[in-house]
């Protein structure tokens, strides 16, 4: 065994211990393709594609603010990785399975694996500071976002030698998680008053599927794989005409009207049998199953269609499918699953003068969370929608093209172009049903828990009020009359908030009447204005209105518009609105070989924006961070990805450079920042992408906090062969056997 195969085998064994059990690695001759994107270069890619420099936008904001006379700083950071791979191959060893009717068939296996990895970290923030003599406004805002999406699915499809499908087995696991948070502080000083509210909020939801196992067996063998092996025809008398591009319209009542309409031979149709025909078609037939007429113009025009009422073209289209496409009612999917569903919610409000607004601020500071494990079984009827569009083109790509499906071996395949599902529709249907069953179970339990927790919190914020107030003497009055300034109980007990107030002349009134805007004391001593809680906010607003704030904002807007003109190209480098996707498949075994995303640049023809090398077709010259991988390159990348199941594996913090954000937002952004500087280069480890100074990025370094030991001095000549050669051989072997840190 070669060293390369040995190291791959050892890596695979190690990965198997960490990765979900459904993952595997296909044989060397499998068909594999996928896409990998590095979100660290997102801003550069946006500039490369559209000409818009997001960093220049920040600079324009800061320059416009400086011109207007205030300070503004902002930045955003995105990092992470998105990858998916589709690998398929045939296992030609015969096996026997039993269909839904109990009949045994000898079949072979078509294997498909789907691997998805998506993890993103995002941070953004800004600060702004404005002042005008005694008035000032300071704003501080920080927001963060985390995303995780992991899927590992292994599918076995059972087929005979004619590629008729008898069922499938699915094993999969996955996780979805989303978390976001926001912190916002503002301080307003005006009219010698200070208002400084602080808001913090966060939310997260996660849905983990440790395992799903499901089995599908057909009632009758299905031919949907033939949709990729034979092009559909337009002959309505041929059962192969039922292509996915036939448009069928339904109606309640149809009559053949011959050539009464401008010489055309047509059917007239309506929905209510009221004699008012608002639709007409070349071809119609009656569906006994649905008690509806179905009509189309896609078969052309013929007088013979007068007798099409009893035909079954639409029935074949919906039930039996055809070489072009259709809908198959294909038996039951049965399986079991386990789930873990969780959520958390946080809200924090400080700095609001709650006493001025009679608010219980403590009730708004809350933290809620829950995590619910679940498991279950399911049995559902499965419908398979399948088809292929053979006439889909992205000029000059169309028809049959020569595609390089393995750059490492320069292997070129003759591929049919069009639109088709990237994976078997049996696999897609099984995944959809299985995940929906697991999702419904976990989410319903989580929603119940959330309703209980959030409902209890809302009741605390807004306690249910009694509709009736009982006076001390037993009299009942509407609850809203209590402490409204008017005595409604005969004994006056409804006006009891805070007791009583004695006027300067000795008159006694309810304390609630003091400073309510009306003079209730005969000498007016109850209205001195000292307790008008809203007056200070009115004064603050007037002070800001009399400052240069409005003029400053107008100058900022005008300058920003001027600066942004240079950062808004009238014509993008590529016409992204006119992108064209296209698929490639092998008609000999009905297997998708890959896909391409085409975009126009100059002229009318498309160029390859993303995809394999297509013989004779130009590729875009853009330098993008998205990679289209096939062959051995895709196998290597998939092997690396299998062990990455945590967010920090896909989006390491060492690659998430927030140093500039920290400079802008200050210590409040990272209040517990570790100041350790391992290599003593003046950059703390948190911001240093090479903590130990060994020349290796931390996310690629198996031990990022330990610098390599200096090499031992060489032995003098004539001595026993020293560690020089042996160490070199050992290091080479270790480099091949030790997995990368990401693994």
Could you walk me through the main structural features you see in this protein, from its secondary elements to its overall organization?
The chain is built from 12 helices and 26 strands. By secondary structure, it is of the alpha+beta class. The strands form 6 sheets. Strands 1, 2, 3, 4, 5, 6, 7, 14, 15 and 26 form a 10-stranded antiparallel beta sheet that branches. Strands 24-23-22-17-16-25 form a 6-stranded antiparallel beta sheet. Strands 8-13-12 form a 3-stranded antiparallel beta sheet, with helices on one face. The longest helix has 37 residues, at 425-461.
Q: How far from one another are the termini? A: 23 Å
Spans where pLDDT lies below 50 across 5 or more residues? 1-21, 235-244, 319-323, 715-743
Major sheet description: 10 strands, antiparallel
Radius of gyration from CA coordinates: 36 Å
Q: Overall mean pLDDT score?
A: 81
SS summary, helix count: 12
Morphology call: globular
Helix content: 10-25%
Please tally the β strands and state the result: 26
Describe what is shown at a glance:
The protein is an alpha+beta fold. The chain has twelve helices and 26 strands.
Q: In terms of topology, how is this protein built?
A:
Elements: H1 3-18, E1 31-38, H2 42-50, H3 54-68, E2 71-98, E3 104-132, E4 135-159, E5 165-190, E6 193-195, E7 198-222, E8 249-251, E9 253-261, E10 264-270, E11 279-281, E12 283-287, E13 292-296, H4 313-320, E14 325-350, H5 354-357, E15 366-387, E16 400-406, E17 411-418, H6 425-461, E18 468-470, E19 476-478, E20 500-502, E21 508-510, H7 535-545, H8 549-564, E22 575-586, E23 591-600, E24 606-610, E25 613-614, E26 626-630, H9 631-642, H10 647-650, H11 659-665, H12 723-737
Antiparallel strand pairs: 1-2, 1-26, 2-3, 3-4, 4-5, 5-6, 5-7, 7-14, 8-13, 9-10, 10-11, 12-13, 14-15, 16-17, 16-25, 17-22, 18-19, 20-21, 22-23, 23-24
Helix pairs in contact: 3-8
């Amino acid at each position: 065994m070669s060293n390369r195969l040995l190291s791959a085998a050892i890596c695979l064994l190690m990965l198997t211990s960490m990765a979900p059990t459904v993952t595997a690695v296909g044989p060397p001759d499998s068909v594999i393709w996928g896409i990998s994107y590095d979100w660290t270069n997102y801003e550069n890619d946006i500039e490369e594609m559209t000409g818009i420099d997001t960093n220049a936008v920040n600079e324009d904001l800061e320059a416009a603010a400086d011109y207007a006379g205030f300070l503004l700083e902002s930045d955003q950071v995105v990092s992470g990785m998105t990858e998916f791979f589709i690998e398929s191959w045939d296992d030609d060893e015969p096996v026997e399975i039993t269909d839904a009717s109990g009949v045994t068939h000898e079949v072979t296996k078509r294997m498909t694996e789907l691997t998805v990895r998506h993890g993103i970290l995002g941070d953004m923030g800004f600060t702004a500071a404005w002042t005008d003599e005694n008035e000032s406004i300071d704003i501080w805002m920080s927001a963060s976002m985390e995303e995780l999406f992991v899927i590992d699915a292994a599918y076995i499809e059972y087929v005979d030698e004619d590629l008729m499908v008898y069922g499938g087995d699915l094993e999969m696991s996955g996780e979805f998680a989303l978390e976001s948070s926001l912190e916002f502080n503002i301080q307003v000083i005006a009219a010698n008053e200070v208002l400084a509210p602080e808001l913090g909020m966060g939310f997260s939801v996660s849905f983990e599927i440790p395992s799903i196992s499901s089995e599908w067996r057909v009632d009758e063998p299905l031919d949907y794989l033939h949709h990729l092996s034979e092009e559909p025809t337009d002959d309505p008398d041929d059962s192969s005409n039922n292509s996915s591009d036939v448009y069928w319209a339904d109606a309640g009542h149809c009559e053949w009207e011959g050539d009464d309409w401008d010489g055309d031979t047509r059917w007239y149709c309506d929905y209510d049998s009221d004699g008012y025909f608002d639709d007409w078609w070349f071809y119609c037939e009656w569906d006994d199953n649905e008690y509806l007429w179905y009509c189309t113009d896609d078969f052309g025009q013929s007088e013979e269609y007068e007798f099409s009422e009893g035909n079954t073209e639409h029935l074949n289209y919906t039930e039996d499918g055809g070489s072009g496409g259709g809908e198959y009612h294909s038996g039951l999917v049965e399986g079991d699953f386990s789930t873990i569903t969780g959520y958390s919610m946080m809200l924090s409000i400080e700095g609001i003068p709650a006493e001025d607004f009679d608010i219980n601020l403590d009730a708004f500071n809350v933290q809620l969370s829950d995590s619910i494990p679940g498991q279950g079984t399911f049995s559902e009827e499965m419908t398979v929608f399948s088809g292929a569009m053979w006439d889909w083109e992205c000029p000059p790509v169309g028809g049959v093209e020569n595609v390089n499906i393995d750059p490492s071996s320069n292997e070129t395949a003759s591929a049919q172009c069009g639109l088709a599902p990237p994976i078997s529709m049996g696999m897609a249907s099984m995944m959809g049903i299985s995940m929906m069953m697991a999702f419904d179970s976990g989410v319903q339990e989580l929603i119940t828990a959330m309703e209980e927790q959030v409902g209890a919190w809302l009741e605390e914020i807004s306690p249910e009020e009694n509709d009736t107030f009982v006076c001390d003497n037993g009299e009942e009055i509407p609850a809203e009359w209590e402490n409204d300034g008017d005595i409604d109980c005969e004994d006056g007990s409804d006006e009891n908030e805070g007791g009583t107030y004695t006027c300067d002349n000795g008159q006694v009134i309810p304390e609630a009447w003091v400073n309510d805007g009306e003079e209730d004391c005969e000498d007016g001593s109850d209205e001195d204005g000292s307790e008008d809680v809203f007056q200070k906010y009115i004064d603050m607003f007037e002070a800001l209105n009399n400052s240069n704030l409005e003029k400053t904002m107008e100058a900022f807007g005008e300058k920003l518009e001027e600066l942004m003109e240079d950062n808004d190209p009238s014509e993008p480098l590529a016409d992204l609105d006119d992108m064209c996707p296209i698929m490639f498949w092998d008609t000999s075994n009905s297997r998708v070989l890959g896909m391409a995303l085409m975009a126009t640049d100059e002229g009318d023809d498309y160029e390859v924006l993303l995809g394999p090398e297509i013989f004779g077709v130009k590729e875009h010259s853009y330098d993008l961070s998205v990679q289209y991988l096939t062959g051995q390159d895709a196998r290597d990348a998939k092997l690396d990805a299998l062990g990455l199941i945590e967010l920090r594996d896909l989006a390491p913090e060492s690659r998430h450079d927030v140093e500039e954000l920290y400079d802008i937002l200050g210590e409040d952004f990272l209040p517990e920042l570790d100041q350790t500087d391992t290599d003593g280069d003046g950059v703390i480890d948190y911001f240093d992408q090479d903590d130990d100074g060994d020349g290796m990025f931390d996310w690629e370094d198996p031990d990022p906090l330990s610098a390599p030991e200096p090499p031992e001095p060489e032995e003098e000549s004539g001595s026993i062969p020293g560690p020089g050669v042996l160490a070199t051989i050992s290091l080479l072997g270790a480099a091949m056997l030790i997995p990368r840190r990401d693994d």
